[in-house]
Amino acid sequence: MNSRNLVKDTLQFASPPRIPRQLWSLPWAEDHYPHELAAIQRQYPDDLIGAPACLVKPLKTSGDQYQAGYYVDEWGCQFRNIQPGLIGEVKEPLLKDYACLDHLRTPDELLSVDVEQVNAFCRSTDRFVLAGVCPNPFERIQYIRTPENIYIDLMENRDGVTALLNKVHQFYLKVFEIWVETEVDAITWNDDWGAQRALLISPKLWRQIFKPVYKDFVDLAHSHGKYAFMHSDGYIADIIPDLIEVGVDALNSQLFCMDIEDIGRRFKGKITFWGELDRQHILPEGSLADVDRAVRRVKEALFQDGGVIAQCEFSAGSRPENVYQMFNTWDELFQGAA
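and the corresponding structure tokens:
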């Protein structure tokens, strides 16, 4: 079975012969452990990959987002970075006054996708291909206004933040409308919704304002035969039922910020858990035995004839031997089952 069908069987709870794999590596890992990272990638190649963006028009950015200093992204938001290998933070709002919203420039270069080039890439591989763009509507409005401003806006200027979100959302829908016409297998988006032990805003407010945004993404994907993948860091247990309701197929989350067994009892078999293993404690600090126990815990709680992807992030502080051990344990579990 090739990787594309392996992932599809996982998403459809159709008893895949093994668990699909995916490693996310940050530049920090590439800088600190290039040989170890390459060895892991050789032995445990990804079953899911991202398509190249294939933009005809280059994005208007400046600086390097992973180097110390300043980086201006495609929307014009300025990030200040003090640690190489990671992404910095926005300290000044791009949009200082909602009265100026009409003048906010959208990065229309993202609409200049060379569809034939994307399709050629998809045909060149038997792996499951994710779209080469990853919208982040909640994070984007934070970058435009700064996080501290957007939380105040949500409480005191609902009309303003709703108008901003709508502008961002309508632009991202245009981007996705292009990608769902390509031969990629799934679209994906990224919004971090959780703090360590709670949602960043009330679930009620999230359902009123942001849930419809994700429903639009899912509906667009499914209407074109694509899967819908979402990422969110932090504690998000309160909104997993909503993500299932709108039809998200795969959810990448920090499982170890939540009660994994409770998540399994409530949601196993209803959505695919696209990783991840604990990168706060186990990957940087744990022993090989800790990694082994964590993988077995995830399988026991969440696997049901599929529904789990062996994904982890090789980020700042992670030990390469622990990243290797995660993939090794998943393989051993399925070799034993066979």
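(Above: one complete record from the training split.) The chain has a mean pLDDT of 96.
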